[in-house]
Design goal:
- This protein has 358 residues and is an alpha+beta fold.
- It is built from 8 helices and 12 strands.
- The longest helix has 25 residues.
């Protein structure tokens, strides 16, 4: 039997939501607006304050080839040095030949697209802002007074997750991707540890592998110049590993300029998160980035956020191995649970990490 239709708030092309609450109550997301045939975006999506940085078309985010990581010592050291340089200077880089086949990555993108363009009632049942839900579908949060042009499926793997909670359209693809991306994270943790002068298993051994997969769907936008796919921010994670399709739109800030993170077939984007900036005592720095809205679309990306578990009882802060009298800690220690609360209650245009700066 088909699920009942919730038509309490039907979308009409000439009846756009006037508030975020009204939009949220529909539970159809940005995709629902597009399906209604709109030619103009609702006012709540209009960003009156947009980033004014200049673009730098001549710059390119570092690309690191992992193919020869096990070839010999010289190759390994070269890759570590490249990771170090990218993490110090950029806070973002792309990795290729990381062990996941392009066909597998393409399938994840395909299945996420199928979910977002499939049965609307399935998405409505999953629609929630309750972060205790392991699997939830939601649409754009208000940022600085404006909503963002994006729908998201969240799968949180902290603790245990019943795979049957994941929509059947993308369940198998996400579970396989989770397994494969975990191996990539292990490699990255080793390289980042060694790049900081720490033992290779330092990060991996500290239970810093709480994984959440955010699958994003950015519909084609009729007025992309008025809104954003994602506001300017830094990630609250330890690291974020991003799979993006070929549409583009992700931009990172480098030396005061906006740089396109150009899609590369088979590549994964790695962002240094605020927690790694803290852990490294600012040897590595998280990069500000945003996503542009576009008339092309839908744009699809899959972000894997990796961080310490939220109930970690040990205080988090700069690594004791990286601080000294000559290099004192730049951040106070804190509990990850408190850090997460700070993030969700912080003032606009601030970071949770800034509240713990010494």
């Amino acid at each position: 039997m088909a699920p009942p239709t919730n038509d309490r708030c039907p979308i009409q092309a000439n009846s756009l939501p006037k508030s975020f609450e009204e939009f949220d109550e529909r539970k159809t997301g940005v995709k629902g607006l597009i399906d209604s045939g709109i030619s103009k975006i609702p006012e709540l999506f209009v960003h009156h304050r947009k980033v004014s940085l200049e673009a730098a078309p001549g710059l390119q985010v570092p690309i690191i080839d992992l193919e020869s990581i096990d070839k010999d010592e010289a190759s390994y050291k070269r890759i570590v040095q490249e990771v170090h340089q990218a993490s110090v200077s950029w806070g973002v880089f792309q990795v290729v030949n990381h062990g996941i086949l392009k066909d597998e990555l393409d399938n994840v993108i395909k299945k996420i697209k199928e979910f977002n363009e499939g049965n609307q009632e399935v998405k409505k049942k999953l629609y929630s802002r309750d972060r205790s839900n392991k699997v939830r579908f939601l649409s754009n949060l208000l940022q600085s007074g404006a909503a963002i042009w994006r729908d998201t499926l969240v799968c949180s793997f902290e603790g245990s997750l019943d795979p049957t909670e994941i929509p059947v359209e993308c369940r198998e693809a996400i579970m396989k991707y989770k397994e494969r991306i975990s191996r990539v994270v292990d490699i990255l943790y080793e390289l980042l540890s060694v790049a900081l002068g720490l033992p290779p298993d330092c990060m991996k051994s500290m239970d810093y592998a709480n994984t959440q997969i955010f699958s994003h769907y950015y519909p084609a936008c009729p007025q992309p110049e008025l809104t954003m796919g994602l506001h300017m921010h830094t990630d609250i994670s330890f690291i974020t590993v991003l799979l993006q399709d070929d549409i583009g739109g992700l931009q990172a800030v480098h030396d005061g300029y906006l740089v396109d993170v150009t899609p590369i077939p088979g590549a994964l984007v790695v962002n240094i998160g605020d927690l790694l900036q803290c852990y490294s005592n600012e040897k590595f720095k998280s990069a500000e980035h945003h996503v542009l809205a576009s008339k092309r679309g839908p744009r699809i990306s899959v972000a894997t956020f990796v961080a310490p578990v939220s109930d970690l009882e040990k205080p988090f802060g700069p690594s004791k191995l990286l601080v000294s009298d000559e290099n004192p800690p730049l951040y106070k220690e804190f509990l990850i649970s408190d850090y997460n609360k700070t993030h969700h209650s912080k003032k606009p245009n601030t970071t949770a990490l800034s509240y713990y700066k010494i």
